[in-house]
Sequence to fold (330 residues):
Amino acid sequence: MKRTIASVLTFAALIFGGLIGNALAQTSAPVPATGERVATGERVATAAASAPVKLTLPVKEGSVRFLVIGDTGTGTIQQQELSDVMLRYRQAFPYEFVLMLGDNMYGGEKPADFKLKFENVYKQLLDDKVKFYATLGNHDESNQRFYEQFNMNGEEFYRFTKGGVAFYSLNSNYMDKRQVKWLEDELAKDTSEWKIMFMHHPPYSSGGKHGSSSGLREVVEPIFLKYGVNAVFAGHEHFYERVKPQKGIYYFISGAGGKLRSGDVKKGSPLTEKAFDTDMSFMLLEVAGDELHFQVISRTGETVDSGVLTKQQKKPNTLNTSNLTVIPIR
Ligand SMILES: [Fe+2]
Fold:
């Protein structure tokens, strides 16, 4: 009798426990933000995965090499496919680190989401000790700053250097007085050869949905000019755009690392030097002496933009403004 009761209790516990376990699994299971198929970390057998690598970058000795990608955090198969191309290019161009331009996590931000939308997708790069430096987008919780693999050291805005290049990650969600003071204080004592900003919202953009973040620009642009910032990388827009130099500063948008807003770049925009909005993409960058080399590659392995920009010649507080383009403030 005792045995029968014990068996019934055990059976009930198994059923009940299983139901609870299932319920927990269902409520905590991450889902990709877009797309139907989920990235698994497996290499994807697509045409892009075998497309030839055609590097335009010089790979000079002692140069600073990095990758830029934005708006990644979907966990979709397309994000994975782009990651596979990133990985293949690393064999020809051994970049040391990656700048993430925000919206690193769409939707949930549980540990399982970080696994689905980041760790699985970039597993091989992480295994190869490539460091990712994140900035916060409008979809990101501030607590991402404590996630070790984003290398933010618990800060919403921070600076690090590689060779003669200083990188500043700004929190463009809240450009408050505290951040502005920190930025000015850091730039005032910064003797680096290159000063590069990365943030989520683009001060200049030809996007139809968002466009230029003009309020942000009003705050940061005078500081960039005053202290001789050379280049700015932003995301938010789900396409690639190389903006014509604005008051002497180079601006890039690279926000199609996990999402695409096809056809969103306004045709004939006076801002656009080059744009690509028909597939996802990432950027490869190489700083060598006074030159900034760049190559932009799509999910299908096509090079959609490439070139070299020369470091701006300037004296303190006098960046060249001769190529100023007049932009209507939105
Ligand atoms: Fe965004």
User: Anything to note?
Assistant: The first strand starts at residue 64 and ends at 69. Residues 1-28, 321-330 have pLDDT under 50 and may be disordered. The chain is about 25% helix and 25% strand.
